[in-house]
User: Fold these one by one.
Assistant:
Number 1:
Amino acid sequence: MKRYLTAVFIAISVVILVLGLRIDSQWTGAASWGLTLICLIFAAYFTKYIPDEKTPKRRK
């Protein structure tokens, strides 16, 4: 499940940006970019759980 969290956080950041920038309030832009930055940091953190397909699997 952790391998899919990168895509989930990127999708959440896109949704936050689209919804946050559509709402025209005073601090909505700064808040939406801040939440997007946090989501992208989490997405970068969870990239370590994506399996590396380049390394062959060893057989015993």
Number 2:
Amino acid sequence: MVQQIAVSDAAVLQDVASGGTAHEIAPDLAYRRLAIVNVIFYGLPGAGNRGWVLIDAGLYGTKGFIKSVAAERFGAGARPAAIVMTHGHFDHVGALEELAEEWDVPVYAHPLERPYLQGEASYPPGDPSVGGGTMAAVARLYPRGPVDLGHRLHDLPANGEVPFMPGWRWIHTPGHSVGHVSFWRESDRALIVGDAFVTTAQESAISAALQSAEMHGPPMYFTIEWDKARDSVGRLAALQPELVITGHGRAMHGEEMREALQRLADSFDRVAVPADGTYLRHPARVEDGTAYVRHNRPVPQ
């Protein structure tokens, strides 16, 4: 049975003033919530043209909001050096094609996300039977078709470095998607996790709207390999981060956050995994082709 791991306000990182449009949580890290999802900005304020990096690209229709934050934080007309992706679900790629073309920037992602980012395949459909709540109930209606970045798409370097983000390394954290990655900086123990885990109950429209703070497994309705999701959370908890930014929910820090993350890892099957569901019975694996849904490929039933 899925249970809540409550986190007090003491673990929620207090936002540092940054003009009112983005939450600055470290000198070179800020994020902006766009409806149900966070977009992250790496770079010092005033970094200027090509002096910063965008991490994920929000929902469709949010290009203007992203550009507004970028202009305020980095300077009018400042374009990023790159866009790096945790994964390619619809709420992380909504403005990606438009921004990549307008800014003329490379986009970096794990090689296993390529089919979804170069127009070859759609994600497996969302599973409305898991998690309860309105967000989960309409999961099969969410867009899952690919975007096509063409020549701008590049694989993240095999050596683990993150382009234009010195000191950061990427970690393959599959489960929510086959090519999902997280980003880790050892120097201050900062961790950007996408949807490997989140800090609100994303299946519930009310929790998503209110940003109710809790340590939560990956959004259930899109998670396709629960065994790998468990392993990924365990790997991230073992890093003992000081600061975490997730794709959904508020940034957290400190000992209470670490303890909650460890509890999530230790009791993942009990507190994060639904009792039943399409992808519990039939995980969508790269090996059998179900992770890459093309016109001639079946989806799990």
Number 3:
Amino acid sequence: MSTKGLGILYGILGVVLFSSKAVMVKLAYQYHVETLDLLMFRMFLSLPFYILILFIIRKKRPTVEIKTKDYLWLLAFGFVGYYLASYFDFLGLNYIKAGLERIILFVYPTIVVFLGWLFFKERITKVQTTAIIITYIGVVVTFWNELELVGNEALIGGFLVLLSAITYASYLVGSGWLIPKFGMLRFTCYAMIVSTCCILIHYIFSGDWDLFQYPLPVYGYGFAMAIFATLIPSFLVSASIERLGASNFSILGSLGPVSTILLAYIFLAEKLTYWQLLGMLIVIFGVTYLSLNRKRKALR
């Protein structure tokens, strides 16, 4: 298989596995597990593997000098990108369906454009403005029916997942210049370790220290999230970006909402209305339109 073919295969697998996380969270919530406990299971069960990978690549030195401020930025982005984004996402899933969660999270490329304009004075083009408007029309169409069905819960859940999208977009915008310094593998491992430490600190102050009270399936879902929805896809996505480039990979991200909705239909019996399906298609079109424009811009 060609390098491009492998990149597409890795990207599809990574996106689908990442998308399965929301379904696993909803399945675990059926056993009334606390949000912070579930997040602890996910991060701590994946932590040994990231430490092992760091040990394996320890002799591979960075090609550029890494300064103290780089490590400080790494701490900040590990806190924002993996701890806060995950925590807001897990909280939001208490209130909304897995399919809706993925649709809201999928708007993060438009937030990246906003943040680039806000902090780096990057101009927002007419094409980007069009894509952003289309995307948010899709979100409104998707959410309107849900708001009528479950009221304020959908609003609370949607807001929390939107916060997750904002923090993840902040991580993408800010960490882009650090990844070449540390290397993709080392940066990902460090960021995940920082996130795990943040969750532990949070748990020290807010947890009930009763992690062994749950039925066996909860720990099974925690392990599955750690391995199949965190560890494996994090490196599949890295491998895909390495072979295809970030612009091409972002197009594959369109599979995220679709795969989540299909998995939620199979495992959670979640059903979306025709209006919600229409909204999903509008969101996917808007983000794909934005991604394709970036790709054309990069080729010029």
Number 4:
Amino acid sequence: MSYPPPTYGYPGYGPPPEHPQATTVLILGIVGMMFCQLCAPFAWVMGRRALNEIDASGGTVGGRSNVMVGYVLGIIGSALLILGVLAVIAYIVFIVVLIGSGSSS
């Protein structure tokens, strides 16, 4: 996505407009952290892309703080998702080993 170059003269009043996906990344990060960890990787990927676009805009696009919060929450939520999957796998392996050792006696 390309953004217009900064204009010359007096700067406009107020902050620059937010990135179009800033709120989406923030919401996905919060949902991925609190309720459904499957949303967290999407917040992570979309947040990284939005941060790159904000940095490349030269100050004409804002919303960096919202995107950064969503991005970090996406990373944390993804780590929790991986730990949860590993815990489920370990539990299944434990149950299989327990059943296997109980039936052989």
